[in-house]
Request: fold
Amino acid sequence: MISPVKIWRRQKNIRNMLGKKGVVLSWTIIYTPSNDFKKSAPYPVLLAQLDSGEKVVGQYVGTLYNDLKIGMRIRTILRKTRITHNEDIISYGIKFTNEI
Amino acid sequence: MISILGYYSTQFGELWERSLFDLVKESIDSLLKESKIEKKEIDAIFFSNMMSGILENNLHGSSKIAQLLNTHIPIFRSEAACASGGMAVYLAVQYLKANPGKTVIVVGAEKMTDFSPEEAVEGLMAAASGEEQEAGLTFPGLYALLAQIYLNSYHYKHENIGAISVKNHFHGFLNEKAHFKRKVTLKQVLSSPKIASPLGVLDCSPISDGASAIIITSNTKKIKQAKRTCSILSSEIASDSISFMERERLDSLTSTVVAGNKAFKEAGIKRSDIRVAELHDCFSIAEILGMEDLGFWKKGEGGKRALAYETMLGNSGSIIVNTSGGLKAAGHPIGATGIKQVGEIFLQLTHQADKRQVHDVYYGLAHNVGGSGGTAVVTILGI
Amino acid sequence: MFGILSYGYYIPRFRIKTEDIASVWGKNSTDIIHSLAVKEKSVAGIDEDSLTMAYESSSMALKSSKVKKKNIKTVFFGSESPPYAVNPASTTLAHFLGIEEQYLASDMQFACKAATGGIIIASGLIASGFTKNALVVASDKATGRPHDALEYTAASGSVALLLGKTNLAVRIIDMTSYSSDTPDFWRREGIRYPSHSGRFTGKPSYFHHIFQASTLILKKNKMKPTDFAYAVFHMPNGTFPLKVGSMLGFTERQISPSLVVNTLGNSYTASGLMGLVSVLEIAKTNDYIYFASYGSGAGSDAFILQVTSKLQKIKHEFKSAMENKEYINYAHYLRCMEII
Reply:
């Protein structure tokens, strides 16, 4: 279980990265994840560089999952990161979708 | 002068009957016996292990070893993810430089198969940053991202990295202690089930149990008396950001570049002097990046050279890499790997490598990387 | 004056067709489509919940308005599928939107009218000067029990309204609420799927409360159905709104532009509001719009709205949002809803 305090601290950074656009530097599709991510598998993960300069990793949940390309444009959105149905605090974080 | 007097590895693989410290005890006991050195001659022990805290809630391994050996000597634990073993060797060397005339054991061990693959995958991700974990990444995923960048930047295909696995399995076939003693074809590698695209099962080192140990000494009398010995010419370590996206380059592991340059400078030899090397092939792409980052191959030509099997036993290449089978075929019990690598070079330099023996070897190199490149240790041995 | 400054909406892109659900249970989809008038419904992804959807709709509403965040001292979150049984989503929503410190956050539940009740409450807070503006968000990722009739209609979506006294795009001329204790649809604590009392959910429940609330407000304001350009009602399916509208004297022509339920399903607290958004996107200045929500348990909130010239400046592309879809099969649907 991740500490709720850790989630709380992280949430402040997450807010600053929402609604930003950027470009894909690399991508992969994960087939064998760890426990908290099992229910979403298989899923694409991107390394993207935001137009504001930061590099961010996150899952991709847009429509182009069969056609991922380095150089593709994306934007950041808010989603649940870990899919668990238990007593823990929910972990929200940054994921990517198509630019528009 | 700092020299290695002996080396022992347990079998690597799924070792159901042996616990983590059974493996540690076996390696220390066998090592002392084979090297004909007595327990009382050992002045300190350096212990390498990554995950016993996370997986088994067992820390303070140094004290556990003290109990097994019934001793009061100083025992130190090091952890740098997959570079824990290399770091233990480095620290042992520093200790011996500061304490002349002493003899130490460096032992590394890992017990991973008691747990489900998901638990092991999750435990391994402790070596990555929080952001990388929250993104649902796994270690295969991290190296897959590196692989995509490499393949895309230098216009290669999966086969250009998959060939590394073919080579290492060919070597592992010749190593009795390897987890996988079977050859694989390039076709099998390319069609193996995907773990994190483009990497498939056969691009990835396995989850293994195992332990390895070496004796290192700065005692000149012992070195003179030893039947088979080689010296550690340099041991250098470098660090880098844990989050791979925070690093200067995404097609190179700077920690390897820095550690490698320091190691060659300290040892006073050239890249071309190295005839045999153990490189950190946690994933096929990692060995290629390692060859380029250590300066054996030019940046970007690795894919071509890998597909030509230039570093395979029996080929005319100037350097043969991963005769142990690498991490891929020999197995990757995290804490043991860095020490096994040094041990394999010791076997090569002292002509004890059996069917894996490379000829005319005077210098060898071991390259151990932690996580996705947050730590790199380069050790150069000579005879 | 009181009313809406801007609005936002979010429709997840997955859709499942009625026929793909019906075929799993060996039912005749033509009959079902005919009786429910729902061809397909929207489904939120496995990593979406009522909070993430509320963030999307609220972001849209805030983007199309120049209101300063510090003036939004009220954030209401209405849902039947909140992320937690105990822990407000309104504070998490406010955090991600950048609304902080001096604000009142409240999570509301009243089945499908959780958010519209919030509109009425917000009007008092704005009139008293407690806050200049209020953000009221409706959001649901509604689950129906497999093999139950609700499975065809329970859908996902969110609508957000930014309310205030000035710069109104839509004036809320009057509001009323009609309530009673009625056991038509409920879900006990700790129980996963809701229950309902079959045909009792019709006449004594949906129809009675909407009819009573509407009759009261129209009488009080001396208005007739013909005064309105559009009429929007809560949409548990595609036939009930037409029927209750007809009972009140509204025509199919006034009601059908809001019947998004045909292709989106019933997103519970966001259902009626989604229909309202659909109508706002085509309404003209000075149009009167009639809007009545319904929440099981039961109650109806009724509103008389009038469009101002400012609405033209803040319209979005709701129609293309409705068309932005990806069909999924039943197994994928069960994964999205975490039923498997």
Remarks:
- The interface with chain C takes residues 11, 14-15, 18-19, 39-40, 59, 61, 63, 77-81, 83, 85, 90, 92, 95 of chain A (CB under 8 Å).
- The mean pLDDT of chain A is 94.
